[in-house]
Amino acid sequence: MTDLIASQLRRSLRGYAPEEVDGVVEELIERVTAAEDKLYELDRALQQALRELADANQKVARNIGASSELGTDFASTLRQAEMQAERICREAAREARELVAEGRAQADLARDQAHWESQEVLAEGRRRAQALLAKVKKTKKARGSRSAESQSVLGW
Question: Which of 21, 37, 75, 118 could serve as a FRET partner for 44 with CA atoms 20 to 30 Å apart?
Fold first, then answer.
């Protein structure tokens, strides 16, 4: 994700170009949204699988009397399938949460970095403005003293 920011943002005289930062932030938001959507879909699929499994377990329980050996094997297979489905869904949900967290962290980082760079640019602008103001005052003062000197020489 850090490569995403580095590969898409060019440095400008004032830090990163704001329109590019906005683009990266927008892309990160899209990724986070996609990860959240995927997490929601996986949760829905898990809930559906658990309902189907519960129905199958009920059918197995009803049929165990007719064929206990087959029913036991089938129930065991269903339990294993249920455990595997739950594990897969937990892993998918964990991955989705990690993607969302990473996307948010990258968006925060990009925003913070842009903020600090803008503060640096602002501070540099203020320093330059103060230096120019001091130079203008010095020049004005020098011109004023020369004018007073000229007037005294001329006797005005």
Answer: 75
